[in-house]
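Tutorial handout. Part one gives the primary structure; part two gives the three-dimensional structure as tokens.
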Amino acid sequence: GQAAATTATAFTKTTRQSIVLPPVLRPSEDGQGDLARGYPFGSLEGLTAKPGTPAAVVQACRAAITAAAKPLGAVRVRAVSAGVLHRRGGALTAPILVRIDYAGRGGIEVRQAQVGCRLDEAGRVTAVI
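Part two.
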């Protein structure tokens, strides 16, 4: 509602957070994981958004994930809403579906998962779980 829209506006201003990616979104240690599932060998199913998380929140989470994934070799990061925001105390958790393409030795390694993007009262991304 109104609070989500107001909070979402704040998120767009706070996209430079330093977070740690959960293991499911990190590239494999040898750079060879999931190569057969992604480019150039084929494509995964498209990311289908589920209503519930405002676009501005998804963009803030994507920006934070991109900042954490780039040093690991990410060449593309996509994210969509995976449902309704959850509020606990002053923090929000946004369910998002994320796909990260990493440059690997044999091609592009793809990591895809639904994760929770935690945001504080000020709209800063504090964690991806």
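Part three, for discussion. The radius of gyration is 15 Å. Residues 46 and 99 are 10 Å apart (CA to CA).
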